[in-house]
Amino acid sequence: MTLDTAYLRGSVAGVYSVLHHASCPENIVFHFITTHSHGVKLTRAVTTTFPYLNFHIYYFNTNLVKGKISSSIRRALDQPLNYARMFLADLLPAGVRRIIYFDSDLIVVDDVINLWSINLGGHVLGAPEYCHANFTSYFTSKFWSNPVFTASFKGRPKDPCYFNTGVMVIDLWKWREGKYTEKLENWMRIQKRYRIYELGSLPPFLLVFGGDVEGMEHRWNQHGLGGDNLEGLCRALHPGPVSLLHWSGKGKPWLRIDSKKPCPLDSLWAPYDLFRYPSLFSDS
């Protein structure tokens, strides 16, 4: 998970939910990615909240994406730390093979071992796929009118489908072997020149991995609970069982609760909110 001041409250709720529902919480190791600007305060906040947590902090060099980020439809998506998920294979130790990447606006209501143990079937990445979504809408007409760009999907095991990058199981060894960070960065460079998408760090993942993802049960990413990109929109759960609730989109549950304008499903997030009242960064 990434750690920053704006989303720390969500990250802590996510960590607590993972621990609360785990059959063996002592076996879980957390890897947090942050920047140097708030690293000390964020480390202290995690240590104070979870004194016995097995975790490591890694510092993301934002210069890695300086000049490569294109403006998107939401300002929050343009933050450098939002792109840190592209560099996990470089940030984490070589001995770490499999990881679960979680966004900071979700909670788990199932034993995370059930997600960890899925069979990736030889794929680098596993995530719930949503093939009913209009995949073409994630890219501009400049992309679809260029046969060189569209040819990137040829030869994939299956047709590309949308997947949300807030929940991913990743084989870091295969990632390094295939140099996938370089592939993602290459699409960012193309985006700067041709403007082939509008939505932050998600489209490069769709371009590199679309059609080559190990699909997982939708229960592991009930996403869009933040209303996607519309302010004030309350969403219901997708049909089917639920193992993870994800407030992707503009509406974050802690902000809506504080403003006394919560959505109904925000009540499911509230029990994991350990930072509702304390002043996190006071020096007292």
Automatic annotation (TrEMBL):
It is found in: Membrane. InterPro entries: Glyco_trans_8 (IPR002495), Glycosyltrans_8_dom-fam (IPR050748), Nucleotide-diphossugar_trans (IPR029044). Gene3D superfamilies: Spore Coat Polysaccharide Biosynthesis Protein SpsA, Chain A (3.90.550.10). Its main location: membrane. It comes from the Eukaryota. Keywords: Glycosyltransferase, Signal-anchor, Transferase, Transmembrane. Pathway: Glycan metabolism; pectin biosynthesis. It is a single-pass type II membrane protein. Transmembrane segments: none annotated. Its EC number is 2.4.1.-. The keyword Transmembrane helix does not apply. The keyword Chloroplast does not apply. It is an enzyme of class 2 (transferase). Belongs to the glycosyltransferase 8 family. This is Hexosyltransferase. It comes from Hibiscus sabdariffa.
